[in-house]
Protein: SUMF1/EgtB/PvdO family nonheme iron enzyme
Organism: Polyangium spumosum
Amino acid sequence: MHQETLLYMLAECRPGLIQRPASVAPPGSSEGRAGERIHIPEGPAVIGAAWDEIPFGWDNEFGRATVSVRAFSLDSLPARNLDWRVFFRANGEPDSLRPRTWIHGAGRLLVKTVFGPVPFEVAAGWPVQVSGEQARAYCAHHGGRLPTEAELCRAAYMAAEGARRPYPWGDAAPAPCHGNFGFARLFPSPTGSHPGGASAWGVEELVGNGWEWTSTPFSPLPGFRAYARTYPGYSADFFDGEHDVVFGASFATDDKLLRPSFRNWYRRNYPYPFTSFRVAWDG
């Protein structure tokens, strides 16, 4: 995870300080694909893992819990920069809703990347990178809300018959066709670029291309134990009601972390990480 922190810190560097290596292909322009509302029926979601279920996990992953999730609807894809621009303009372009990655230069809108800013047209179809508080405002504007951790677990990993899959797409090992993760590229992908990673319900990009904000405060699962004597505060220091669970993975997340039990979190007003979101609705 520390490599992700370093990368989003690099994206904050002065433009021109970091140059894209010739070995890294430049991103092309694309508006991506808009999401559509998908209905997820009532049913179970499994969060975390039993102590003997996985060979290694961080302390917050243990304490397997089965949660009953009411029926809800979910956008099939994350919100894009393009979608956010419409929302931003409709609300008068206040600074409180301006993504941290958006900057103006030479009279045009630019979007920050690890290798410096790119024209908005290049990043229009990428998942928009915002804080949890900003994401909540967008969802409310569209008559929805952020999904819970349990809802995303159900949408991603639960099959119709109630079994939990190892990956949203099934049993196959992670591959580039499934999503943008594991440094396959050092930029986000336009939404809709990886239909092969769709879950059993047809929801896409639940793993890769950006962590996704939830409305669930980061808290321990039943039976939590800070087992690492050398790092007892890895999770416990953040059980403070100010940090929310973020779900999935980003383009800079190692493949080894793509497991159903993995849990990540950020302070909900923190705008710097590779975090996006999708809208959920009741019923």
Q: What stands out?
A: The two ends are 35 Å apart (CA to CA).
